[in-house]
Each structure stands twice: as C-alpha cells, then as structure tokens.
Fold this protein.
Amino acid sequence: GAGVSQSPRYKVTKRGQDVALRCDPISGHVSLYWYRQALGQGPEFLTYFNYEAQQDKSGLPNDRFSAERPEGSISTLTIQRTEQRDSAMYRCASSTQGHANTGELFFGEGSRLTVL
Amino acid sequence: GENVEQHPSTLSVQEGDSAVIKCTYSDSASNYFPWYKQELGKGPQLIIDIRSNVGEKKDQRIAVTLNKTAKHFSLHITETQPEDSAVYFCAAFYYGQNFVFGPGTRLSVLP
C-alpha cells in the first residue's frame, strides 16, 4: 500500500529482551517521527529524522531507547533490556515536508509492544 | 516546553447535534494547530488544521477557531453523524518544537 507501514504489528517479549520496531514511511517523505501512545492518551514524541539525520531525540525516555534511519527511508526503533513500563503502542509518522515547514503527519497503524 | 490541554475527555451527543472540543496551549510561539481523528485500531488522521495568521477555518461540517491572545483553539463539528464517533486529538507546533498532542477526546454520536 501507499501508507506508512510498521512491523511487527504486535510484539510480546519477556522483560530484559531487546526489541526492534520497524517503520517504512511513505515513499519520498522527508521527515519521520516516532511517537509512543499509551492507552487513552495522546501520542508522546520520542524522536524525529529529516532524511537520515536524527534532528531531535529529546523524547527518548532513557538510553535503552535508540533509533536510526541510515538511508533516509526505513527507520528502526530499538529498545534494549525491555521493562514492563515500556509496554505501549509505538507509532511512526512521516511527512512530505522538512521540519522547518509544518505539514500533515501520516501515521502508521502502530506496533503494540507488551513486555511480560 | 509546550503543554496542550484538551476538554472534555469524553463527549456524547445526539445524532444531528453539534460537538465542540476545546484545547489550550502554553507556548505563545506555537503557530500551527492540527486536529487528528483516530478510529478504533487505526492511526490518527488529519482532519483540519489552522495556522496562526487566521482565526477560523471551515471544511464542510467541521471548523476550527483560534484565539492566539487567549492561547486556545476549538474544533466544531455540526450535524454530527455516527461515523464521527472517534477519538479526537489536538496538537500545537512551531519550528524547533515538535508536535505536542493533547490527551484526546472520545466523541460518541448516539443514533
């Protein structure tokens, strides 16, 4: 399809394991954002990229969280040594415009992470 | 940093009535205010937005108003229909600050 694609859609892991969440943005979109959304809450900013450059990672909760977008397209959000509090919906969004210009965010359907 | 509050958290209206959702923001530098609709099991989708150089924008049954002095903006939905039932999020943005979303409003349109 032409939308933002995220995988896996559902991930159940044991505490202490590492997980990698993948985002494939809309082709040609410059900006890519990662958000975390708890049940009943609004999306909470984690990090964002312009092309391959990580412009802002101020929302990453701690150093167990990292993200990359090496070729300016697909991005991976990695959580090391997962904890139960990491359980949430992780959403990726992309935008056709660079961060200097506001533009519509196109969200994926999310990856729901459950840490047991 | 920016903080966005949103009220009410839940809203029930009869089909055909109007619905109003209000948001306030804290950072006067914010200059772009989108509204997103999130249906069950899906990602948020932009339905309307407004920039700080206008006070009101309308698109068919939905409209958004902005009061920069008071730092609040509102979503108005007229002639509500069952398919309007969803969670609605407001957000505030300016260059150098990422999109900050409100906590959401669950709208239920009763037949």
Notes: Residues 2 and 28 of chain A are 11 Å apart (CA to CA).
